[in-house]
Design a protein that fits this description.
- The protein is α/β, with parallel strands linked by helices.
- The protein has 3 domains: 4-89, MurE/MurF, N-terminal domain (Udp-n-acetylmuramoylalanyl-d-glutamate--2,6- Diaminopimelate Ligase, Chain: A, domain 1), CATH 3.40.1390; 105-301, 3 Solenoid (UDP N-Acetylglucosamine Acyltransferase, domain 1); 310-347.
- 18% of the residues lie in helices and 27% in strands.
- The chain contains 5 helices and 38 strands.
- The strands form 6 sheets. It has a 10-stranded parallel β-sheet with strand order 8-11-14-17-20-25-28-31-34-37, with no helix packed on it.
- A hairpin with a 2-residue loop joins strand 21 and strand 22 (191-194).
- The chain is flat and about 95 Å long.
Length: 348
């Protein structure tokens, strides 16, 4: 178990030490559960009561919370970012694969960089290029002519179809499928005629893709995810979608084909974005949003209705069903009064 002095951690984070800089830290934990040798963080002042009672050896706090901290502290503007960086530093997650397993199946022309790990029963097809330090978990299938950049990690049972390109330092969780056919068909008198999906999936650097997420290949052009994109579990990204830098998409979201999403967007879980629309940079959709047209202005958007007691919901639905009838009555009244106003003006 590697340990660090509080002063070393302060230097790593660019934080200020308050208290004993020699105290030894080996792990990160919550305020409520942290104990000796552990560091925690406070990023929301409503949890100050937990700060008061914490048994942590140190806590990362912002300047306004320092006076409430009863233990050693690292002071910085954004404690949550400090926590994230220390969690990376002290991460004990094992490698997806450390060596090339004798039970892996590889084509003769596969190009391996230095320090590549390939797990048991992985299949690596012809023309694949794996950069330095790539980890391919057990049971992965890497299709023909795939390129994976240095430092990228695939957990078990990931499937990459042919011609997929993935950049450096990406993380792909188990059972993700990248490069499957997009949903492209033409209708010939009631019969569906499949359109071969001839594009690729191109993924930039530092992209993370959640478990069981599917990213379809392009129909003619490519499906593209730019640097820094993060996608949660069980999402569907359809063919020819383009997602800009550092956009985050939460779980169970669906993005329709040929949609373009800008940079630095956030999309809440269970959202659905229709196809062939464009979303500007810095757009933020709350959870369960239904996006049926493009958004050209940055800002926050919502459409999901919060739950309510069933009796109230039934009444609301009944009222919605009456809206058309009510609208017709209003139009008749408006027409009636408009005609009377015209008649009155004519008499003057």
């Amino acid at each position: 178990m590697k340990t660090y002095s509080l002063s070393q951690l302060a230097e790593y984070l660019g934080a200020e030490v308050r208290g004993d800089g020699d105290v030894k830290i080996h792990a990160v934990s919550t305020l409520a559960r942290a104990g000796k040798g552990q560091i925690s963080f406070l990023s929301n002042s409503k949890y100050r009561s937990q700060l008061r009672d914490t048994k942590a050896d140190a806590v990362i706090v912002q300047p306004d919370d320092l006076e409430f901290c009863p233990v050693n502290a690292l002071v910085m503007k954004n404690p949550y970012v400090g926590f994230a960086r220390l969690a990376q530093l002290m991460d004990t997650t094992p490698a997806a694969a450390e060596l090339v397993s004798p039970h892996a199946v590889m084509a003769a022309d596969v190009e391996l960089g230095r320090g590549v790990g390939i797990g048991a029963n992985a299949v690596i097809e012809s023309g694949v290029k794996l950069g330095d330090g790539v980890q391919i978990g057990a049971g992965c299938v890497i299709g023909k002519n795939v390129t994976i950049g240095a430092g990228t990690k695939l957990w078990a049972n990931v499937t990459l179809y042919h011609d997929v390109q993935i950049g450096r330092d990406c993380l792909i969780q188990s059972a993700a499928v990248i490069g499957a056919d997009g949903f492209g068909y033409a209708n010939d008198n009631g019969q569906w005629v499949k359109i071969p999906q001839l594009g690729r999936v191109i993924i930039g650097d530092r992209v993370e893709i959640g478990a069981s997420t599917t990213i379809d290949r392009g129909a003619l052009d490519d499906t593209c995810l730019a640097d820094g994109v993060i996608i949660d579990n069980q999402c569907q990204i359809a063919h020819n979608v383009v997602i800009g830098e550092n956009t985050a998409i939460a779980g169970c979201t669906v993005v329709g084909g040929s949609t373009r999403i800008g940079r630095n967007c956030t999309i809440g879980g269970l959202s659905a974005i229709t196809g062939h629309v464009e979303i500007a940079d810095n757009v933020h959709f709350t959870g369960m949003s239904m996006v049926t047209k493009g958004v050209s202005q940055a800002g926050a958007y919502s459409s999901g209705l919060p739950s309510q007691p069933s009796r109230e919901w039934r009444k609301a639905v009944a009222n919605v069903r009456s809206l058309e009838r009510l609208s017709q009555r209003v139009r008749k009244l408006e027409k009636h009064y408009s005609e009377h106003d015209s008649a009155d003006k004519g008499d003057r």
